[in-house]
Amino acid sequence: MDSQRKQNIVPLTIEEFHAIYKNDDERYELVDGIPYMMAAPNMGHQWLITLLFGEIFNFLKGKKCRVFVAPCDVFLSESVRDEDGKLKKNLRTKGTVVQPDIMVVCDDKKIKPDGCHGAPDFIIEITSESTRDKDKSLKLHKYFKSGVREYWIVDSYEETIDVYLFNAGNANTNKRSRSAKVQTFGFEDKVRSNILEGLEIDFASFDFDLNFESR
Questions:
Q1: pLDDT in tens, 46-69
Q2: Rg (CA), the chain
Q3: Is the pLDDT of residue 148 over 90?
Q4: Which residue has the higher pLDDT, 32 or 195?
Q5: What is the mean pLDDT of residues 76-99?
Q6: Which residues does 56 contact at the CB level (< 8 Å), separation at least 6?
């Protein structure tokens, strides 16, 4: 969606978004009130999700946290406080509903029949030509602000994994108290999770026979 079209759109609340797009044949995400259509992924993208989901699912057996794969709605609320922690005035809450490729949730209270209400602890996005900008800027910023603790961006074209570690804040945490660290790995590396102690994924062991083409 280009910037001119964004300027002409009145930001939607979550309720308005669902009323308009709930029965649509296409998949959409809502970020700060702006709807984004999601293109169907190719088979290489889905194969990589399958490999990663399998590793995390097996690791989490018998543990507290749960792993989910798209499409699952994640409801992220806009902060109702400003940078100084004061309540905002005249706030019309702009909705955010996203569908991460893979997410790990360690608080069962967030899991509802219609999705995850609140920030997952760990998110992985498999980026593509059509989603790279959104995954590496828009979603990165939104996940950081909402309280996600760890975020991996897996780029199958560049064969890199960007691992972001955010501090344990939430949507109402003072902006100045939040921080982020990032490390970049390659598909020849073993990548450890910072928050799921003991989880290490060996990307070099994955079978990448399927061709990764743009969506």
A1: 999 999 999 999 999 999 999 999
A2: 17
A3: yes
A4: 195
A5: 62
A6: 67, 102, 104, 196, 199, 201
Contact status, residue 153 vs residue 131, Cβ threshold 8 Å? no
CA distance 64 to 51: 21
CA 204/CA 89 separation, integer angstroms = 51
Handedness of CA 212, 153, 66, 189 (dihedral sign): positive
Burial of 129 (0-12, 13-18, 19+ CB in 10 A): exposed
For 60, left (φ over 0), alpha (ψ -120 to 50), or beta? alpha
Contact 140/162 with Cβ under 8 angstroms? Answer: no
Dihedral in degrees, nearest 10, Cα atoms 54, 57, 59, 64: 170
Q: What is the pLDDT of residues 88-134, one digit of tens each?
A: 544 456 788 999 999 999 999 999 999 999 999 999 999 988 788 88
Structural domains for the chain = 3-205 (3.90.1570.10)
Cβ-based neighbours of 34, under 8 Å, separated by 6 or more: 1, 6, 9, 11, 12
Mean pLDDT score, 27-33:
88
